[in-house]
Amino acid sequence: MAKTKTAYVCQSCGSVHSKWMGKCTACGEWNTLVEEVIQPEKKIPAWGGNRHTSTTPNTAVELKNIEQRTEIRLPSGDVELDRVLGGGIVPGSLVLVGGEPGIGKSTLMLQVALRQQGIKVLYVSGEESPHQIRMRAERIAGSSGECLILSETAVGRIFDEIRRIQPDIVIVDSIQTLYTEALDSAPGSVSQIRESATEFMRYAKSDDVPVFLIGHITKDGQIAGPKVLEHMVDVVLQFEGDRNHFFRILRAQKNRFGSTSEIGIYEMKSGGLEAVSNPSDVLLSADRESLSGNSVCMTLEGVRPLPVEVQALVSTAVYGTPQRSATGFDVRRLNMLLAVLEKRCGFRLGQKDVFLNIAGGIRVDDPALDASVVASILSSNEDVALSPTLSFAAEVGLSGEVRPVSRIETRIAEAERLGFTEMVVSKYNKISTYPENIKLIFVSRVDELYRKLF
Q1: In the chain, what is the straight-line distance between the N-terminal and C-terminal CA atoms, in Å?
Q2: pLDDT tens for residues 207-256?
Q3: Greater confidence, 11 or 325?
Q4: Which end of the chain is more exposed for a tag (fewer CB within 10 A), N or C?
Q5: Whether pLDDT at 424 is above 70
Q6: What is the pLDDT of residue 373?
């Protein structure tokens, strides 16, 4: 018998090494090299034929001579998902959905499968039995449609069923559980994930059937498997949120058929995920008490303006070493803002504990949150409550200047619609149309912000 050849493949980036090393020389990750058997180049693909394959070789044509076709998108039955995808499901697209365990990836995809009317959907599960899926489907409100359930992990047998059923949409849960018999490596390895995704990509493109792949993530929050997996697919959707909170955000990290600036917002309920069409009404409590340390910022998630409630607590450090804690906000940026307040305004916050929380369990990276964070910290430090009809939208620089933010008119219009009467913005913002029912407070420095508010 011929000697079996092996190589060491990095599970993070997919690079191949001839011997084991503690650190991958390509991506720099530690303890990611796994021994795998080198397979021969010639192997029979799982998806060997289709109804569109032609033996005629392709030839190069001029761009102006290519026939234009109007994309006919399929409605998914989910308004938020259609918005993130760019208007609906594109035939022949390969979509990768990632997120933390228990965040609702399988629930979202099962809801999409159950809501299809007159469309044959094949739901392939490599993690749950058909009885478990039936129990979850009974909990989710929706029509059964023509959804077919297949509990299988072998790629070859999955495509045997696909040839027999001829579905219109295929959902795979999850790509890390599948394996192809052409490879000897274990399911979830780089080789298996890459080969399985390649088979589904070949099938989606040749038969114009949209395929949804659910993917696991690593402890760093990245989709498990080689980075080439994200390059192969057409759309990468990231499901974000805290399992202990109700709200979930579906964000497009890559979209070949639409914009990546759109997001979808869901609320987790007992009957599954429910789309939030107007998130402004649910992110803010109707009766906000006038407590110190609370403020509201008009942030942007994609192209949608959202009000975010910022809560801060400043107290004397009891144990000697002051604590800095932030939930939903970058703690390094919090330390920077505290240093600006101490250097530029003279506030002695070095010996005080500072705790910051973004209400609702969402994480915000918008720099327009800076002014609201500063105002909440100062409000808690002075123990003076801010007006519940006051909002913020401005960035704070290292020298203490209050900088302008993008799309300020959209933020002002949303604040006016929600009933806010005052809004703090940068003096350097260029505003073409001034609102009628909201007063703009222009500031240029942090110390000026303090003087106008307290």
Answers
A1: 84
A2: 999 999 999 887 666 777 677 788 889 999 998 876 666 778 898 999 99
A3: 325
A4: N
A5: yes
A6: 96
